[in-house]
Design brief:
The structure holds 2 protein chains of 2 kinds. Chain A is an alpha+beta fold. Helices cover 53% and strands 16% of the residues of chain A. Chain A has a two-stranded antiparallel sheet with strand order 1-2. The model of chain A has no long low-confidence stretch (mean pLDDT 83). By secondary structure, chain B is α/β, with parallel strands linked by helices. Chain B has helices at 8-20, 23-26, 63-66, 105-122, 150-162, 180-194, 218-226, 243-247, 255-262, 266-299, 302-305, 307-350, 352-357, and strands at 28-39, 46-51, 56-61, 78-88, 93-103, 140-145, 167-172, 199-204, 231-235, 250-252, 362-364, 381-386, 389-394. The longest helix of chain B is centred in the last third of the chain and has 44 residues, at 307-350. Classes of the chains: A alpha+beta, B alpha/beta. At the A-B interface, helix 1, helix 2 and strand 1 of A face helix 5, strand 7, helix 6 and helix 10 of B.
Chain lengths: 73, 406
């Protein structure tokens, strides 16, 4: 499977639901679809559970180097 | 010969001293229209004439003061400046030394902004087709604003509320005053150089018209237009537009709104994902139960419950076939038997016995049938076969018949 990103995964999940809804699939196809859909929804939910926010400040030093330093708000 | 005279230098110095000691001339506001505007690249000083219908006066604004300008002076512009009058002795010229300057009245400032807006628009800075699309799932947000401002707190609060995993990179800049335009522009460039940022929010909280002027500067407009990363402009109040709003890829009325535009609401997304997962489950269950029902319907049929029925039916069919077969065979035999009887009847007519029955006899010797008088001679022993026996006879004589009349 291609590297997943949330956006594409959610779109794919919606696509799968629509396809299953159409009822045009064979049992084997719908089982495969279902399996993929479950994997996608698990991935999406996991992505959404990321709660580690990070705030930093961008500093340009005299020599032109750019650095990040933690920012306490 | 007059002995009591002064030099030009002394005169000018004297006049200059008069000016310096006059309270009015040392601090006044002067209104007029700019003409002959020049700004020397090297020194950074500005020279121009301020005039109205009846009069004109030379003006200078030194670099140290020009930095505070919130607009770009040009010929024909009505301005209000504060300054002092002094004598420029070398040329015997009365000059106004301007310390601050602004377009005349708020109306003047608006007029200036309108002109600047038109120019930037003509340059293509606000072209809708140049606007970049905001990524729908931004994770990394750059912010250019004052690190001490309420705007930053608001943005961070809303970002974290909507997207608990958000990554934020702040480029601090002042947001009002002389240095603000350059610092804001540098902040935007800095984040672009840093890269790996999905969206930049540029803004500040509300303030007076003057306070928001940095966001009306062409420096900031250009920086926004040049940004490779999409920019959301978030300046002050809802009502006013700043030029940065026009230049940005998206305009937010407030910093709070900018944060809401930048990242999706994760609670909403989670709901959506859960809804889909549940729907997926339901669909699959329905899918399976539909097939189960179909299977049930088939299994309900009698033959599955009483398989003997299936055999019985086959047996009946077999019996039927057998019956039909023997019937057909019989028919054939009867038809053939009939034909045989007919054929036998025909044979019967040809039988010699029938002929004998009608009174004919068959003549013969011991070993052959006599068909001609030449077959035997007188004295020969002959036999006549009749229907009911054989006559033994002796041939006495023969007579040839001429011909049978047929």
């Amino acid at each position: 499977m291609e590297p997943m990103n949330f956006d594409a995964s959610l779109a794919k999940l919606e696509e799968i639901v629509a396809e299953l809804e159409s009822g045009q699939l064979s049992l084997e196809e719908s089982l495969a679809m279902f399996e993929q859909g479950v994997a996608l929804s698990v991935f999406c939910q996991k992505e959404l559970k990321k709660t580690e926010s990070k705030v930093s400040k961008l500093i340009q030093k005299i020599n032109g180097d750019i650095e990040l330093e933690p920012f306490e708000d | 010969m007059v002995n009591d005279f002064i030099t030009v230098e002394a005169l000018n110095a004297y006049i200059g001293r008069l000016f310096e000691t006059d309270d009015i001339l040392q601090n006044f506001w002067l209104k007029g229209e700019i003409s002959g505007f020049r700004c020397y690249q090297q020194s950074g000083h500005m020279y121009f004439t301020l005039k109205d219908e009846q009069a004109a006066v030379s003006c200078v604004m030194f670099k140290s003061c020009t930095r505070g300008l919130k607009f770009k002076p040009e010929d024909g512009m009505e301005v209000l400046l504060r300054g002092t009058v002094a004598m420029y002795g070398k040329q015997g010229k009365v000059q106004v030394y301007a310390e601050e300057m602004q377009p005349f009245g708020t109306g003047g400032m608006f007029l200036y902004l309108e002109k600047l807006k038109k120019r930037l628009k003509d340059e293509g800075c606000f072209d809708p087709e140049k606007k970049k699309e905001l990524p729908p799932m931004a994770n990394k947000i750059g912010i250019v604003t004052s690190q001490d401002g309420a705007a930053l707190r608001d943005i961070l609060r809303v970002l974290k509320l909507r997207h608990p995993g958000v990554e934020v990179v702040i480029a601090h800049s002042s947001v009002q005053g002389t240095e603000a335009p350059a610092e804001i522009a540098r902040g935007i460039q800095l984040i672009n150089t840093f890269g790996d940022i999905d969206i930049i929010i540029v803004g500040r909280g509300g303030g007076s018209f003057e306070d928001l002027m940095a966001f009306n500067s062409e420096t900031v407009v250009y920086a926004i237009v040049d940004s490779v990363i999409p920019v959301i402009s978030a300046v002050g109040h809802e009502v006013d537009f700043s030029l940065s709003d026009f230049a940005a890829d998206m305009r937010a009325a407030t910093p709070t709104q900018a944060a809401a535009l930048a990242v999706p609401d994760y609670r909403e997304l989670e709901e959506r994902v859960c809804k889909h997962a549940a729907r997926l489950q339901r669909l699959m269950e329905r899918n399976l139960s539909l097939r189960e029902e179909a299977l049930d319907r088939i299994m309900m049929k009698r033959v599955w419950r009483e398989p003997a029925l299936l055999l019985e039916k086959k047996k009946n069919m077999l019996d039927d076939c057998n019956k039909k077969l023997s019937q057909a065979m019989q028919d054939i035999l009867i038809r053939r038997g009939h034909t045989l009887a007919m054929a036998a009847g025909g044979l019967d007519k040809l039988s010699p016995l029938q002929v004998l029955g009608r009174g004919y006899a068959i003549l013969g010797t011991r070993d052959h049938i006599v068909k001609s008088i030449d077959d035997i001679n007188s004295g020969d022993e002959i036999y006549a076969e009749l229907i009911d026996g054989t006559l033994k006879m002796e041939m006495k004589g023969k007579e040839k018949r001429k011909k049978w009349n047929r």
